[in-house]
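DATA SHEET
Item: assembly model
Revision: 1
Owner: S.N.
Input lines:
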Amino acid sequence: MSELQAPILTICIALPLAAAVVAVRTKADLYARNISAGAMALTLLLLLEVLREVSAAGGRMLAEPRILRMFDGGGAWLMADGLNAVPMALFAAVTLVTLIAAPRRDINRRFLISLLTLTSATLAAYAASNLLVFLVGWIVAVLPALLRPAAERGRRFAGLVLVASAISLVAAVILIGLAGIKAGVAAPLSINISGVTNSAGGAWAFVFLVLAAILRERIFPFHRATVALFESNSLLLPALLVNSHLGIFLIARVAMPFFPGIAADALPWLGGLALLTALYTAVLGLAEREPRRVLAMLITSQSSAILAGLATASHEGIGGALLQWIVLVVSSTVLIAVIRSLEVRVDGAFDGYGFMGLASSMPRLAVFFAISGLTIVGLPGTLGFPGEDLLLHGVLAGYPGWGAALPVAIALNAYHAFRLFARLFLGKDGLTQNTARDALPRERWALSACLVFLVLGGLTPQNVVSIQAPATNSLVRNAESSPVPQP
Amino acid sequence: MHHFLTPRLLLTCTVLTPGLLFLTLGLGWLLGWTPREATIVRSAKLAYGFASVTALGLIASMWFAGLNSVSAGKGAWYAIHRFEIPLVLFVDWLSLPLIALTVVLVGLVTVFSKRYMHRDPGFHRFFVLVHLFAFGALLVFAAGSFDLLVGGWELICVSSALLVAYFQKRPEPARSAIRVFITYRICDIGLMIGAFYLHHLAGSTLYTSVFTGSWPSQASVMQGGSATLIGLLLLFAAMGKSAQVPVSGWMPRAMEGPTPSSAIFYGAISVHVGAYLLLRAQPLLTASSIASAAVIVVGALSAIHGTMVARACTDAKTSLAYSSISQLGLIFVEIGFGLSWLALLHIAGHAIVRTLQFLKAPSALHEFHEIHAAAGGHLVKTGAHFDTLLPARLQLWLYRLALDRGHHDAILDRFVAGPARRFAIGMASLEERLTVTRAPRPERALDV
């Protein structure tokens, strides 16, 4: 296996942790924010370098240099390839945007430590070349959400779902490890092996993997957990947790390559369930009016659509899913940052009832919200358009008949996005009497960067599609080893 | 010089000009630049003047070169494996008149808006959205494939909804915008699935791949059930954009926007985009008698509905809106019968006349009084004698039907939106009881 030029991945995982340590020791919260933002900016730059190296290698797997291979048969702990290089850079970028755009009220030591720990753990899970590392990253990433103050409503259900997902993954890892040991594999938990799991325990391991993914992505019947998570006092942390999409990554990274035979039979059903979730949560959104809850339904529906695209095992479906992943993460980060900014500005009088008319005092925040909201549902001229287009083609071809649920879900989600925009920004401003401040410079620059990325990506989508192409091809090759039956 | 001004370049310039203007004004504002009114108007005049010249140059160059069509653009906009979406602009004698009409009418409306929107707080926003609309409309007319057409189609949807909500301090325009948006998006499902099936069955959505020959004597490579399915899906999409029965309820609500935007959207260009889609897909309709019949039935019903409701309306803009629906219904009928040239001429004539009527609507009362006075106070009502041919009870019944606009909105709300909302609220309440989150505060009514 080829290697990266330096242990960049280890540094990228360690940098947020180091910033968290600084945050623990410093008393000035804003200073800690600056340090954290600096660390995340450096992490992002390093991950962009990883992305460049992976692209230069044609998406092939690049391991960390040998010095860090200590256990598990001397195999690498961390690696980068076409599948994880983009999500890692993307996650570092949205963490940085979240840090910069977060209202001053949210910036405290607890928040910063939680955010940086979550980021470090998520990056570790993405970069894992070993199921143990993946498991640790998976579990540590949910801890900040589980350790929130008890008074927060809805915490118990969301916590149960997250804990259940961790337990499922633990069970899957144990079963995979046992199967590997039985087969006499030197590194049974290495992510780079496949085929040893066709034993009797393999089917159960696959079931637990899929269950972990369903729970983590809050697919039906666990979708209500997203609402519970989004109702936490601090919206930004759960939003980052949701935006990691480790459940989708688990399917792509472990379930599909480890169990090609079983996956060929099971993926269409998983895709069907994801489509059901996309449609069902889009319909459920009709009952919601509060911004956080509408947003929770919108994001759950769209992330289910991504899983449905992945499960089609076709180039269009997987390519669209990977593209839409980027779109959803960036756009929802902007939406959530804007919502949180509004909540702070109107200070408690924020329930989404009536038309709030905030555009008159905050026109730029309104524009950020409108563009990113519509990008999620395929606004032309942004990256959302090709993402949605590819996804639609993949899903409609992969699920003749039932695939029509996706365009209906997207139409309803578009309605939710526009309705939320109208509720928040149109009408007469009776709350702030036009006294609230528009986007601050730091918010403006951070959110503008997201929009510029989405628009430039939309004008030249082939650049992004090409970066994702090796991952798409690899996933399709895995799936094509066994023909996919229709449900 | 001669070689430089190729039809391809002229076509590209015509389409891109409003888009570039939109980007300049939009991005400039995001970065803190708000130009003066004079700058905004001058740039619009310059842009649409330039686009009009390039459009006329395109017509002349095609005419003298004896070309039936011109294509411009690169191969794949984005591609993955064997699937690709081409970025190709295409004009023929169907789209060219509509492109020219668009740039000229949008230019005229921007000139008109200089005074009409003067000192309005949203002056800049209005122009930005009009440029976005113009770009979307030109993209629809100049798209070389149904995939690219979807892009322009959605831009029209967004700009239309945002302009309906232009007077943002009142809640009613906001509600109307939501209604317009959801109607568009639901009907767009037809276009999305139709484009998919075209791609799936023909291997491409390029017009040159899906149809053979040149307009208006084109033929479809698909026949039978495929042509029927795609034809019906495209009809559904066209019904939304052209406000045909039973989804015409958004049209009067869209009148909440400023008059110049009403003129360009609901009098001139936007409402005709649906008719253009059907004209573009005419070979599919020709190949399917079911789809053609459906177009005729929808058009005929809309024509009757529109003319009936227009007579019962009490305000000028709503009356004009329903008159537009009626004319669009007739255009649909013409398309259904395969009268392509007549439909195209009807579109152009209707767009021009209706734009004039919409722009004059704010001063209609004043003008009526002037004409009334000039005629010595003896203006005679026209059309009343047709009413008397019907029995009195039927007249009354029809009047009530027209007054409630055919009960279409009530029927859709009761049998489509209502059950969906009740289902959502019921399931949300059940789920909340099963989980530990608090009970939802459901919508009492949809935001439409």
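QC remark: Chain B touches chain A through 62 residues (CB under 8 Å).
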